[in-house]
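Morning!

This is the sequence you dropped in the shared folder:
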Amino acid sequence: MQPFKKPIYVTRPLLPSIDNYIDRIEDIWESKWITNNGQQHQKLEEELKGYLKADNLSLINNGTIALQIALKALNLTGEVITTPFTFAATPHAISWNSLKPVFCDIVPETLNIDTDKIEGLVTEETSAILAVHVFGTPCNVEKIDEIARKYDLKIIYDGAHAFGTEINGTAIGNYGDITMYSFHATKLFNTIEGGALACSNENLKEKINLLRNFGIKNEEEVVSIGTNGKMNEFQAAMGLEVLKKVEEERRRRKEIKGVYHQELEDIDGISFIPESKDVKSSQQYLVIRINEEVFGLSRDEVYEKLKEYNVFSRKYFYPLCSNYEMYNDLSSSQKEKLPVANKIVKEVLALPFHGDLNKNDVIKICNIIKEL
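The structure's back. Tokens below.
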């Protein structure tokens, strides 16, 4: 089988009509208001409140700063229980706030934090749970809420992959105290770089808005220590145009996912992350697990072989956060305490998944995998 003539990447940014984007840029030029809560910012925040069904939503300049602000806004101290199977920003945001990440193992089905193991990690120093909706699959939010209530803990959700995800019609941002969304270019919805925080009440939103703007209340008052987390007008303008295309992109990705499942689900040694009928998926990633003993090749070997055909998948998430040099000396990072995560991290592979793919592209990718 011949390689693809052009590279097939794991994801591609969803881009709007360049003419429509230029129209918005011209509006920005005319206003001479290019940042600091301008008209584009205000419009996007309002539209996303409706789309995400989040009454208290604050736009932030990226998802990592958003996580840092979320942790700061909740006045946390001591330890935060989280997952090792996530992007680096999750534990880094905890550490940036002078807090200690405590890693909890994951469940093999959803790859999310194992709620049956959280309670055993709670100590007098624990102040919060930071759980991740991995690949857009919701965590066991009911169990997490139960544990948090029992021990008086705060709940932050990293919803970087969960744009538009819902559980039985309830938007994912309505669970916990704060949910972070990422609007990075690799996400279903993007503002080039960007993010947002959805929180549980208006007072918390006011605090978040202060923190994203240096703690400045007005021209004469600075009431807290903050940072620069403001989204600029060019980011917001991109978001307003991209939002118009999200539902069509989600529909196309759902069709592409169907082709992948049809072609690969009966292949011994390859499995997909199960989806619940109660969940509206974000359609963020298409992920398979590769059982080396059954399939005959390791995940890493498949990853390298696909590159020979000009197909660029991703070992996502790899390496495990608990194995980073700055975290591997933590007691919770010991491999015997994270057996599932240390196994999964060697098996998971994200395949190309975006609306620019066509059915024949996907079938060819699947045939390459079948013939390895």
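Headline: The longest strand covers residues 126-132.

More detail when I'm at my desk.
O.
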